[in-house]
Design a protein that fits this description.
The protein has 203 residues and is mostly helical. It folds into 2 domains: 42 residues; 149 residues, no CATH class. Helices cover 61% and strands 11% of the residues. The protein has 7 helices and 4 strands. The strands form 2 sheets. A two-stranded antiparallel ribbon has the order 1-2. Strands 3-4 form a two-stranded antiparallel sheet. A hairpin with a 2-residue loop joins β1 and β2. The longest helix has 28 residues.
């Protein structure tokens, strides 16, 4: 190491003094900048701790989400509040096919968000990524895997003279599917509320 670039010997009257050289001054400056950045990241960029409770996936935890998690939570939140499947489906209205298709596209959208936002969304228990994957894999995926092929098989039997809604109503399993959709809708509503807190959505 060239110590002459780190320190300078300066003549002062009858004596000498050692002062920081240009390289050392730069290093000190960088350390100060890094300390300032670390301080502001810690105090300004993190949210206050949020309490997240979702009994249907066994989550009851508290943590301070970082910026990446906030953004991911906001994206998923928007996907949830803008879909048909978030609204109740009365027994005498609508098509179960529309709700099922909405849930399928929701699953796809959430998977893209998780993929595109990267590992920063997390997989540990106290992360948005963990909670989202639990909702997807424990609730969305099983419902879609169970009911999509059953409904598709029934739809293939529709007579030419019969409308879609009338044909759905003739399906023996239609009430069970409606009940499953409503149970999942309530879980997704709770999930949406918790995402609103994580993303710090002001309403």
């Amino acid at each position: 190491m060239n110590w002459s670039s780190m320190f300078e010997v300066v003549s002062e009257g009858k004596g000498y003094s050692i002062q920081p050289g240009p390289v050392l001054e730069v290093l000190i400056g960088l350390l100060v900048v890094l300390a300032i950045v670390a301080y502001y990241r810690r105090h300004n960029l993190e949210l206050d701790k949020v309490k997240v409770t979702l009994p249907f996936i066994g989550v009851d935890t508290e943590w301070a989400p970082d910026h990446t998690e906030r953004v991911a939570a906001w994206k998923i939140y928007i996907e949830l509040i803008t879909r048909i499947s978030r609204e109740p489906l009365p027994n005498d209205e609508g098509l179960v096919r529309e709700s099922l298709s909405s849930l399928y596209s929701l699953f796809q959208a959430m998977r893209l968000i998780m993929r595109d936002d990267g590992p920063g969304v997390g997989l540990r228990e106290k992360t948005v990524g963990y909670i989202a994957l639990r909702v997807m894999n424990d609730h969305l995926r099983p419902l879609l895997a169970t009911w999509h092929p059953r409904l598709e098989e029934w739809e293939a039997k529709i007579p030419k003279e019969c409308g879609k809604q009338a044909h759905e109503k003739q399906w023996a399993e239609e009430p069970a599917l409606r009940a499953a959709l409503e149970a999942l809708r309530q879980k997704l509503a709770a999930f949406t509320q918790e995402l609103q807190k994580i993303a710090d959505v002001k309403r």
